[in-house]
Fold this protein.
Amino acid sequence: MEVLRGPEAGLNGKPRNRLNTIRPMVEQTGPESQREVQRLLGRCLLRLQQYERLLKALIARSEISGAVHEIESRLAERAAEVEKLTLGSLMKSLFGEVVVIEGRETDEHAYEPPDPKTVTFAYRHSIQMSEDGFVQTKSALKDLVDLRNDLVHHLIERFDLWSDEGCVAAGHHLQASYTRIDGHFAELRQWATSMDDARAMHASFMQTEVFQDFLVNGIAPDGTIDWPAAGIVSVLREAGGELKQGDWTCLDDAVAWIGERHSEQTPAKYGCKSWPDVLHKSRAFDLVYRPDAAGRKMGWFRERV
């Protein structure tokens, strides 16, 4: 490891012509003291780099939305955007997107799909704090950015690294700085762990029948039904498109067609007593009854405009 030269040394180690008095040799520090300062500084900078990498990962994965087939590409795009940010810019994103005051979240990042029929996905993870906690945390992390800038740009200005006394003082400062940096890194790691745990819980839930009913059939966990997104409405539309005569489709024909292709879609699944009950509750179709050749009343339906 290269040892720092004193300010009196010029090119090729020859003394510079300076007006200030050259320090006596007894004040010059040995290589060991400077190497220890370099080691402590390197430890701080490596920890800061670890902090910055973890922060980038946390921000990049804190929110994602888009069409299902775009999720992977959107994650890659977001990671590339975040990778370019400095530590100061990352802090702005952290407190603008991830760390929020309780009760003050907004939907300003909501994703609007270009096609209403496109299956979309949205996920957002936030860390909620009280207003006092938010202010204190933001101030503490601003101090961390200032500490990073001070270590990178001003250490030599603050400490005389060409004297044993200056190296000792710098060493104490670097040890205290590492303690502060490591504390912030431990806090950030807890945030990242909580995010990973939440994401794992969501992934586990997405494998359940309850979620599949919610996603595919529009049946929420509390039993309420989003009729426009309901699976049974979708298959009725599909059957209508295949079997309609003019503008109308025979309900009995549609029920038989659905039974062959989508047997899991039944009125009982949606809390309905019959197929006409589905048509009525969904408010997505018109239903009329017409007599057939034998004089029986037959149900006919069409999608409501």
